[in-house]
Amino acid sequence: MSCDRRPPVEPQRHIKIVSRRDLVLGASAAVAVIGLLASRPALAAGTEAAPAAAETVVPISRVPLSEGLSASRQFDEALGVILKDAEPAVGEPLTLTLPELAENGNVVPYTIAVESPMTDNDYVHTLHLLSTANPQAVVATFHLIPATGKAMVSGRMRLAKTQDVVAIAEVSTGQVLVSARKIEVTIGGCGNE
After folding, report:
1. Is 100 helix (H, G, I), strand (E, B) or coil?
2. Rounded to the nearest 10 degrees, how much is the dihedral formed by the CA atoms of 147, 151, 115, 158?
3. pLDDT tens digits for 169-189?
């Protein structure tokens, strides 16, 4: 028999402190998944979604682009998939905030905001950010739900060269909003494209 007189060992509890960044990323991921499932009822029900309709090309005239700048084929195709046959409303209540000049195309800040009540009957469910001259036209897509509370996103993107950046908001009422801004890029951020 042992004469060990040590006190009994208490089980250790490990408490992990979650950073604000991890909390925001986790919440954003949850909102994105919920928004994706809500926008695709067939996936939420566990069945396979119907095949997408044939891609259509939307005439550039439906989106206000800067004179003298051209849009890529990828932009035309992405715009066609998003807008389909909708006639977008230009400007308010959608705002796209960008700097007029980006000295470095690798890090271009943006903010997309929509004045919306964000109620169950009237809310912005999707925000798209497109570039007219990047190798990949779709920069980002954000899925929102009424619980998001505010239809606003911010981030940073890469831009290959001087071009228009287009924001599109899809509202639960069927309305589609669009806003475009020209940005001068001094040093491109997409390699040799």
Report:
1. coil
2. 180
3. 999 999 999 999 999 998 776
Closest by CA to 128, choosing from 117, 116, 107, 114, is 114
Say if residue 43 is in the same domain as residue 70: no
Sequence-distant (6+) residues with CB within 8 A of 126 are: 35, 39, 141, 142, 143, 144, 169, 170
Confidence of residue 141 (pLDDT cuts 50, 70, 90): very high
Please indicate, yes or no, whether residues 132 and 76 belong to a single structural domain of this protein: yes
Whether residue 22 sits in one domain with residue 63: no
Residue-wise DSSP of 134-167: SSSSEEEEEE--GGG-SEEEEEEE--SSSEEEEE
* Model confidence, pTM: 0.67
pLDDT tens by residue, 102-132: 988 999 999 999 999 999 999 999 999 999 9
Instruction: Round to whole Å and give the CA distance between 151 and 45.
Output: 27
